[in-house]
Amino acid sequence: MLFTLTTTHQPATDLGYLLGKHPDRIQSFELASGRALVFFPEAHHERCSATLALDVDPVGLTRDRTETFGLEPYVNDRPYVASSWLSVAIARVFSSAMQGKCRDRPELAAEALDFEVELPVVSLRGGEGLLRELFEPLGYQLEVAPLPLDPVLAAREPDADVWRGSRYFRVQLKGKLRLSELLSHLYVLLPVMDDNKHYWVDETEVEKLLARGAGWLEQHPLKERITRRYLKHQRGLTAQAIERLQPDTEEATEVLDARRAEAEERALEEQVSRAEQTEKPKPLDEQRREVVLEELLACGATRVLDLGCGEGKLLRRLAKQKQFTRVVGCDVSLPSLIRAAEKLRLDPDAVDRFDPEARVTILQSSLCYRDARLRGFGAACLIEVIEHLDASRLGALEHSLFGDARPKCVLVSTPNREYNVNFPGLADGRLRHRDHRFEWTRSEFRAWANDIAARHQYAVRFRDIGQVDAAHGSPTQLAVFTASQGAECN
User: Phi/psi zone of residue 208: left (φ > 0), alpha (ψ -120 to 50 degrees), beta?
Assistant: First the structure.
């Protein structure tokens, strides 16, 4: 099973930087399906090619099979055609490139380059017409050649139509786009062309489809057919995914609103930075992470929870600190957790797989429900989280965290509403983020925190984060809770 990627961007050897693979080396990767090799058959200034060769273990494919009909488990096309096995290999071997990362040449990852993709054998259920309907809307040029069912007979009788009915094709794709986009297209569309997957499909696959299809699948003319095939024709999962892909659904609107709001929040933070008369500070979110890390190191905790971890910005900082022997990130959003796992170089399939021996773990969990997996930690962080909850749910959060999990130290940060007047766009009383359910003044936040401390035997103190305005305080307010009894020491 082969996949060859070529670029004529000059210098073409930049492809090695983009893929994170050295052109002069052959690299091997062990996979559940067998072994993957990456090598560069050509690497010149004008043209460079990288090949991923997947050597599927044919005996391994027969394990745990229940078929009893003849040789069917042993004689099939699976080790040879591009399929979901190749999708998994691409995600594993080129994970950084799929995420749009390039450590040594980061500007390359954001640039649209000329690429060619060669797939020697594709199992295509739907013919050449379907292939073109899948890729041409994405801007690719295609060269497609059917493969004869009997190559020997085809060579002996070239005029015979021996390939009639064959679903196997050689495919070449050409396009100018970012490498991350190209790999995401292939990850989704390879099993769609084959109309099959080698593994069990559940709700996790819906999240993977939405994550990998973000930015292109929503507008694709065949999005329903792509979704149905990717999810192995499971009606419930297909309906769920298609509903979330519709631009006029409430959930899709919320996603778009959240993206716009994130952009607005970044713009507002930039306005604050430009308006300051002293030396330009670090971005506010970076200042938050530094203060939180300082507090965690000072409290002596070794086991830390990042609750509402999102895509893992704080989690990555925590994982780098040797003091923390166990770090667990939690969030209710599975797509965010998958992206966090990728950025932490964790297996996305291990998300929500509880492993008490793992140093870094990512779990799907709601802050409003008790979760036994979150007990026994020295510290917990809720950084810019509580304002995303309905006020009516704060009581449930209080009981699950302070009453049940009871870490020794709890850090809670939230926006200071009084400071919003310093943002020109918020002077009319708007909230900083469209997903915020509320934003508290300093007195409101302190009253809430003091009540919790009194009810659950915690002491609490407060810190400002960000540039302090003499009249309105700081943009972010932080409460540091320390348990007086009944909590873990570290």
Answer: alpha
200-236: per-residue pLDDT in tens? Answer: 788 888 988 999 998 899 999 999 999 999 999 888 8
Tokens of 337: 């957790």
Whether 475 and 432 have beta carbons less than 8 Å apart is answered as: no
Rounded CA gap, 489 and 136, in Å? Answer: 59
Which residues sit opposite 141 in a β-bridge? 174
CA angle 45/51/53 to nearest 5° reads 165
Phi and psi, residue 85, nearest 5°: -60, -40
Q: Respond yes or no on whether the N-terminal peptide bond of residue 11 is cis (omega within 30° of 0).
A: yes
Q: Tokens for 274?
A: 């430009």
Q: Are 162 and 147 in contact (CB under 8 A)?
A: no
**DSSP state at residue 35:** E
> Cα–Cα distance between 298 and 364 in angstroms, integer?
28
Structure tokens at 111: 């640039």
Q: Closest Cα to residue 175, out of 132, 120, 114?
A: 114
* Type and span of the H or E element at 398: helix 394-398
Tens-digit pLDDT profile for residues 329-369? 999 988 889 888 888 888 877 788 878 788 999 999 998 99
H/E stretch holding 413 reads: strand 409-415
Nearest to 455 by CA among 434, 426, 432, 486: 486
- CB 314 within 8 Å of CB 384: no
Residue with tokens 């060579």: 155
Joined together, the tokens standing for residue 376 give 């026994």
In 10-140, the DSSP E strands lie at 27-31, 34-43, 48-56, 113-123
Asked if residue 407 lies in contact with residue 489, where contact means CB atoms within 8 angstroms, the answer is: no
For 57, 167, 171, 246, the CA distances from 54, given in Å and listed in that order, are 9, 21, 17, 36
| pLDDT tens per residue across span 368-402 | 999 999 999 999 999 999 999 999 999 999 999 99
The torsion angles phi and psi of 403, rounded to 5 degrees, stand at: -90, -40
Low-confidence stretches of the chain (pLDDT < 50) are 64-69, 162-163, 249, 251-252, 256, 276-279, 487-489
**What pLDDT score was predicted for residue 252?**
46
Beta bridge partners, 438, equal none
